[in-house]
Amino acid sequence: MKLHPPLRIAAPSLFGLLCLATGGALADAPSLIVVEDRGGVSALPYYQSLNLRPRQDQPLAPSLAVPHPSQQRFSETDMLPVRSGRLSPGEEPRRVIQAPGLRPMFLIGDDDRSRQWLRERAAILGELNAVGLVVNVASADALATLRGLAPGLTLSPVSGDDLAERLGLRHYPVLVTATGIEQ
After folding, report:
1. Range of lowest pLDDT (81-85, 98-102, 171-175)
2. Residue 54 pLDDT level (bands cut at 50, 70, 90)
3. CB 170 within 8 A of CB 88
4. Domain assignment of residue 64, yes or no
5. Is residue 112 part of a domain?
6. Rounded to 5 degrees, what angle do the CA atoms 116, 157, 107 make?
7. Top-confidence residue, 24 or 177
8. CA–CA distance from 55 to each of 99, 108, 111 (Å)?
């Protein structure tokens, strides 16, 4: 690169002045501390050593009121009624799925078909240690009646809409295992 003759003379002088000006400022600055976070050492001491104060031109963040959890206890009855809009009693085709590790579960409702299905399969469901999801039930009495048909099995009232969408289900009663869906 060719410099104009007057700049050729001035350039070294300007560079020298720049080095002198910044060199003095850098010499007065405290030495830098190199920090490496390997996941377990708090950086708090480094921030504390900076002795930072809040900026005057920015107000402090307002304090947020944290709601306290309700002392009221909720029961299973508070979850009722349960309605699953995507599921209804009916025939569900048997099919194979691949869901390794999935605990056996069954979906039923409070209807004649589900009650009959539960009576016929209670022993098998118990052997499988299957968990029952009652996807359509109106009252605590109806849920208690279903539980009476299969003592020893866990029956929980829960909406089955999400599960129905994920597994492509339209009807119950149905048994879902790690390897298949069947009635």
Report:
1. 98-102
2. low
3. yes
4. no
5. yes
6. 45
7. 177
8. 56, 62, 67
Total tally of structural domains belonging to the chain: 1
Rg, Å, the chain Cα set: 35
pLDDT (tens digit per residue) in 124-175: 999 999 999 999 999 999 999 999 999 999 999 999 999 999 999 999 999 9
The CATH number covering residue 155 comes to 3.40.30
Contact 109, 136 (CB under 8 A): yes
| Number of Cβ atoms within 10 Å of the Cβ of 160 | 24
Whether residue 22 lies inside any domain: the answer is no
Comparing 158 with 5, the larger pLDDT belongs to 158
Q: Which residue has the tokens 């605590």?
A: 140
Residue 31 lies in a domain: no
Please name which of 147, 136, 137 lies closest in space to residue 88, comparing C-alpha atoms.
Answer: 136
Q: What are phi and psi of 57, to 5 degrees?
A: -80, -5
Instruction: Determine how β-strand 105-109 pairs with β-strand 174-176.
Output: antiparallel
Mean confidence (pLDDT) of the chain:
83
Torsion of CA 179, 183, 109, 78, to 10 degrees: -10
Tokens of 168: 């492509």
Domain hosting 146: range is: 79-182
Q: Classify burial at 131, counting beta carbons within 10 Å of its beta carbon; exposed 0-12, middle 13-18, buried 19 or more.
A: middle
